[in-house]
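Morning. Coffee machine broken again, so started the prediction first thing and wrote up yesterday's gels while waiting. Chain of 45 residues, entered below exactly as on the submission form.
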Amino acid sequence: AAAPDVVDIARMIEELRVSLWAQQLGTPRPISEQRIYRALDAVHG
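Came back before lunch.
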């Protein structure tokens, strides 16, 4: 099973895809490439 942080990052990537290609759907939280990179850095160390 994947670690919770990794699952959260996967969700963030999906939300970024929605924000880029289906803006009318919206996302549950603000999302950007920068936020994903920060989350990856936090997990990777």
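The radius of gyration is 11 Å. Going to sketch it on the whiteboard this afternoon.
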